[in-house]
Design brief:
Blueprint lengths: L3 H19 L4 H7 L3 H4 L1 E4 L2 E4 L7 H13 L2 H9 L27 H22 L10 E5 L6 H9 L9 E5 L4 H10 L5 E6 L6 H15 L4 H6 L8 E5 L2 H7 L6 E3 L16 H7 L1 H20 L6 H15 L4 E7 L6 H13 L17 E4 L10 H6 L6 E6 L10 H17 L3 H7 L17 E6 L4 H21 L11 H15 L12 H12 L4
Parallel strand pairs: 3-4, 3-5, 5-6, 6-7, 8-9, 8-10, 10-11
Antiparallel strand pairs: 1-2, 2-11
Length: 545
């Protein structure tokens, strides 16, 4: 009797056999063999066109990849996530970020639906109040979002991406790093009386965030006259809002319960910008804009949950990654948005993908035997062309890429956008097709081609063409990559929703801090390695104030 595991292993073996026939194929040949290649290898949903015709694959490749998805029980895992089951088993949590942008009747359970609706209503009221502040007098003009990791990267990226939509009367700032250089310049130039802090920490114990929050509280307190501070105990509280899963810790910090926004355990940090973690986004673009962001993500959710495998954008994007990593040997992937507004998108994806998929054991705790999680890196186009594209064209490494282009500019200036698009299209084509010796010979007027001008090409890429960069379209784009990560977790048989690897360094930092603070050697120092002890001694020898 054939088991599910036997079927899966047979599907993997078939893919590896097929890969032997394609590894030597050049994209020039694949395009020459199929004049309809763009039509055959592109998909569209909503405002996103995905062209993967420049990937080194064929119809047969996709068929074999989908067999792996089927043997991995992809459809069942997708349904389990949608139903709110505890698929993050190592942390005993459901995965409910899709519920944050779903209609209340589509939530996995009544409690989740009610909590999401209540949070959205509270966010709407809060945003309306700040946006309706009368001109003149003391009013909030600046908001500083304090968080780190998933509590920072998503909102920070979205606020920058949607700069063209931002509310004219509020400026949104971000400080994540515990390095004083992140927060001090903001405090130096802003007015404490017109500044609001949003402290974002799921546990309300995150070292970096709480250090920044305490400094912010001291900054606010220092501006209040002594008699005012005694007479009005809520004076400081008016300058703070908390977004957390730990209401008690937030109120102990001094933030009234009425200004604490909660989000559920089942919402991982890197999937949380749809929750009150995105309050800074809603303040930046208005609650109607935030609602459009949610609706765009929901549109992609519905596509992901219902589209057949052949038409499913997130699944196809995941299968392409699997093919490049497990069949063609890619160790990294480049992401190049040709949009200055999406400058932070590669950094956002780094956390989304590498924190989710950077695992070494499977769902049962056994060592993984297949490669997974390529290193993700990138830069905004056209800046990246003048920095890293030399490596892509002639560095001799196999690096698949994602290009992201906007059909319509969000900041239109005459003679700018078409040049930007021309560069994005040219780079993906040049990477794919390179230049043959005959082409170089002709281009150089019959001169002997120089080896320094050899462009082998055959670097694969996927191009995502977005209609325009609106909240709705950004929601579609982010949900597309979220679901891609889920798919890869299923295909590589790992838990994409925990992040235990983040914890060890944090715990060690807590143990090391007393060793740095104390003038003499502390009892815990004896357990440290020689390198760390030597560095601590060097730091203490000439301690900077």
């Amino acid at each position: 009797m054939t088991t599910t595991n036997d079927t899966l292993e047979a599907a993997w073996r078939a893919l590896q056999e097929h890969a032997k026939t394609l590894r030597a194929e050049h994209l020039r040949d694949l395009f020459a063999e199929d004049p309809r290649r763009f039509a055959d290898f592109s998909l569209k949903n909503g405002d996103i066109l995905m062209d993967f015709s420049k990937q080194r694959l064929t119809v047969a490749t996709l068929r074999l990849l989908r067999q792996i998805a089927q043997a991995s029980d992809f459809a069942c895992w997708r349904q389990r996530m949608a139903a709110g089951e505890t698929i993050n088993h190592t942390e005993n949590r459901a995965v409910v970020h899709m519920a944050l942008r779903a209609p209340i009747h589509a939530a996995p359970d009544a409690t989740t639906g009610r909590e999401v609706a209540e949070n959205l209503d509270r966010m709407r009221i809060f945003c309306a109040a700040l946006h309706a502040q009368p001109k003149g007098g003391e009013r909030v003009t600046d908001v500083i979002h304090l968080g780190i990791g998933g509590s920072d990267l998503g909102p920070r990226m979205a606020v920058q991406a949607l700069a063209a939509c931002q509310h004219p009367d509020l400026r949104i700032h971000f400080a994540a790093n515990v390095d004083g250089a992140a927060l001090a310049p903001l405090l130096a130039r802003l007015n404490p009386r017109s500044t609001l802090f949003i402290i974002v920490s799921k546990t309300f114990t995150t070292q970096e965030t709480l250090t920044n929050a305490r400094t912010a509280r001291e900054w606010i307190e220092a501006t209040l006259p002594e008699k005012t501070a005694r007479a009005d105990a809520d004076a400081v509280a008016r300058h703070f809002v908390a977004v957390t899963g730990n209401r008690a810790a937030a109120t102990a910090f001094g933030i009234p319960a009425s200004r604490v926004f909660l989000f559920a355990d089942g919402v991982g940090g890197r999937f949380s910008l749809w929750s009150p973690v995105g309050l800074s986004i809603a303040l930046a673009i208005g609650f109607s804009g935030f609602s459009a962001l949610l609706s765009g993500a929901r549109q992609m959710d519905e596509h992901f949950l219902s589209a057949p495998e052949k038409e499913n954008l997130p699944l196809t994007l995941a299968l392409i990654d699997l093919w490049n990593v497990n069949a063609l040997g890619a160790c990294s992937r480049g992401v190049f948005p040709y949009s200055q507004s999406l400058e932070l998108f590669p950094a956002y994806l780094q956390q989304l993908e590498m924190e989710s998929l950077g695992k070494s054991v499977d769902r049962q705790g056994a060592p993984l035997t297949r490669e997974r999680s390529p290193i993700l890196w990138g830069a905004v186009g056209t800046n990246g062309q003048h920095a890293v594209f030399q490596f892509l064209h002639q560095g001799g490494r196999f690096v698949p890429c994602d290009f992201i282009l906007l059909k319509h500019a969000d900041f239109p200036l005459p003679d700018h956008h078409l040049r930007l698009l021309a560069n994005g299209l040219a780079q993906s084509a040049a990477l794919a097709f390179g230049e043959t010796k005959a082409e170089a010979h002709a281009r150089q007027g019959g001169a002997t081609p120089s080896p320094w001008r050899d462009f082998p090409g055959n670097q694969p890429s996927t191009t995502l063409l977005l209609e325009r960069l609106t909240p709705h379209v950004l929601g579609q784009l982010l949900a597309l990559y979220e679901h891609k990560v889920f798919c890869l977790g299923v295909l590589w048989q790992l838990n994409a929703f925990d992040q235990w690897g983040v914890e060890l360094g944090k715990q060690m930092a807590e143990r090391l801090l007393p060793c740095l603070e104390a003038p003499e050697e502390t009892p815990g120092a004896s357990a440290l390695d020689a390198s760390t002890l030597g560095l601590i001694a060097a730091l203490k020898a000439e301690r900077l104030p």
